[in-house]
User: Which sequence fits this backbone?
């Protein structure tokens, strides 16, 4: 890692940076949580199809990580997040969200239960102030450990076979959202069967000094399985197909919104399955109960849009005339696997009902000339793509 003073090197580099830069053909890097990370190595298309047909490596190190431990850790997390953490067994992972008192989303993330009273919370953005304020009165210690842990995501149908070739004996028995520790030579890695692609995949967690050796070993072991590194642009295509939300794209943290009515609740985002009203009190419970009783006024839904032009930032209308705006698109892409023009959109009631027909106002730039197209769309279920292999244990030995 680069130890230069921050004023000379504003963005940190991950332990994999040297390996990633050597393979980068476009020198396309973007900032993520204070780190510089690859946006695209060669082409979005090549990297995307590697996710769906081979094995891909994605540098997860910038993911913000917190160690939460102590006798009150479980009670604290149950007060913080909307789902029942008490049901999460050791060596398991769970997706979660947490809200403010108004029931508006602060952030989402994953909780790793590493022991009876030790957890790791991973988020895309830094949340230490909210976490510490929420810990008042609980016997718990909270510390950011982002720089102490390097991480790689291995995703794709041949990822399990590549890990077996690397020497992770028994990796095929790892179930979705399960954690296990493996020794490979002098290296010990924690592996979770998790990911952001909606495909078969794993995430490897290790000490920073092990990073380059593990990267080299994985690239060598996976060479026969079509392994290649990918950037954030290809990952974004896969996560939309999988129906996964992205902060600052599909929602903005209630701690950062400026305008009223811009904060979102889990119920509006289609995350009601993460809200457990029976577990006892948690931050935002009263507001979410009231919202559930009266019904949501808007909802994030999936759209299947005619044509093949992605509806980036499109406004959505109730009919072709374009007179009555009912929402807007938050994420959009042409799905190469589904052969569908798909999107997420926040729509007003009652237009978010499954099967509703709406119209997307798409603008296209053709040789510096903007064209407007009003395109028919239908409200559909998410995810758009969910291959069986993402859950099968053991995975097929491709």
Assistant:
């Amino acid at each position: 890692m680069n130890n230069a003073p921050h004023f000379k090197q504003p963005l940190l580099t991950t332990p994999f940076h040297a390996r990633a830069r050597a393979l980068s053909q476009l020198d396309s890097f973007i900032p993520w949580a204070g780190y510089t990370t690859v946006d695209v190595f060669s082409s979005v298309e090549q990297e995307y199809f590697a996710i769906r047909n081979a094995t891909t490596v994605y540098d997860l190190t910038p993911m913000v990580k917190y160690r939460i431990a102590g006798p009150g850790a479980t009670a604290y997390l149950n007060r913080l997040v909307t789902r029942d953490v008490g049901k999460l067994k050791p060596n398991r992972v769970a997706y979660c969200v947490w809200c403010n008192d108004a029931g508006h989303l602060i952030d989402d993330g994953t909780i790793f239960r590493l022991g009876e009273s030790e957890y790791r919370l991973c988020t895309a953005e830094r949340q230490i102030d909210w976490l510490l304020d929420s810990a008042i009165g609980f016997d718990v210690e909270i510390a950011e450990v982002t720089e102490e842990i390097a991480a790689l995501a291995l995703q794709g149908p041949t990822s399990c076979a590549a890990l077996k070739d690397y020497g992770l004996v028994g990796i095929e028995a790892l179930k979705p959202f399960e954690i296990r520790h493996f020794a490979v030579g002098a290296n010990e890695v924690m592996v979770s069967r998790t990911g952001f692609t909606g495909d078969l995949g794993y995430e490897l967690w290790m000490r920073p000094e092990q990073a380059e050796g593990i990267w080299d070993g994985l690239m060598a072991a996976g060479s026969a399985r079509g392994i290649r590194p990918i950037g954030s642009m290809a990952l974004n295509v896969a996560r939309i197909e999988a129906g996964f939300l992205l902060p600052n794209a599909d929602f903005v943290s209630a701690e950062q919104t400026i305008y009223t009515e811009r904060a979102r609740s889990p119920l509006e985002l289609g995350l009601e399955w993460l809200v457990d009203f029976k577990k006892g009190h948690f931050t935002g419970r009263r507001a979410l109960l009231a919202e559930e009783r009266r019904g949501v006024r808007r909802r994030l839904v999936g759209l299947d849009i005619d044509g093949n032009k992605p509806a980036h930032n499109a406004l959505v209308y109730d009919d072709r005339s374009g007179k009555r705006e009912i929402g807007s698109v938050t994420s959009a892409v042409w799905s190469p696997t589904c052969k569908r023009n798909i999107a997420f959109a926040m729509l007003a009631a009652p237009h978010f009902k499954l099967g509703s027909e709406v119209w997307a106002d798409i603008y296209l730039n053709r040789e510096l000339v903007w064209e407007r197209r009003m395109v028919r769309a239908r409200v559909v279920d998410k995810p758009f793509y969910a291959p069986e292999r993402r859950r099968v244990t053991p995975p097929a030995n491709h």
